[in-house]
Structures are given as C-alpha cells and as structure tokens.
Design brief:
Structural class: mainly alpha
Radius of gyration: 14 Å
Helix content: over 70%
Strand content: 5-15%
Low-confidence stretches: none
Distance between the termini: 13 Å
Number of helices: 6
Number of strands: 2
Largest sheet: 2 strands, antiparallel
Strand order of the largest sheet: 1-2
Amino acid sequence: MRLLLTWLINALALFALPYLMSSVHVSNFSAAIVAALVLGLVNTLIRPLLVLLTLPVTVLSLGLFILVINALLFWGVTQLVDGIAVAGFFSAFIASILYSIISWALSTLLLKK
C-alpha cells in the first residue's frame, strides 16, 4: 500500500511541475502516472549504474554531478513518455530538482510511520 501511495505522490509532484515552470508540460494525470512509474523504474535500475560509472567525476565535483545524472534521466523519461515534455536540458535540470523537493515534501506530509 505504501508503494502505491508513493507512486501517486510522485505522479502528483509531476503533475504540479507545469504550475511552477512554463517549460514543462504534462497533458493529463494519466501521463503523470505513467511517467512516475517509468521514472521510478529508471531510478531503480539505471541510476545506480550511472552513478557508479561516473564516480570519479562525482567525487571531483563533490557530489554535484548526481544532479546532472538526475536531470539526464528526467529528460530521458520525458522523451519516452507521451504527454510529458520538457523544453531542454536546463529546464530538465531545474524540473528534476523541483520534482525531488515536491515529492519529498508530499511524502513527509502524507506518509507518516
């Protein structure tokens, strides 16, 4: 049940992004649900491999390169899922940070132990 609630919270965070950024477009809530699912799978399966492969750059940048990895994955997911669009890499960079903050805040408020 907690997994489904987290998935819906992430979809809500994606659905809220166009209200904060004009360069992000989400056509409907079903597109946000699909994108949240794909983003969760990508973050679970691909992100650890990318972090491991880019470990030297990440260490040299004091961990800030992970933000670039998050932005690339976010941008890639928006290219794969119909109904969600991001204007460019910089927009994906800012959107991935806002997405993380919104989903963290909603999870903190709605998912109590």
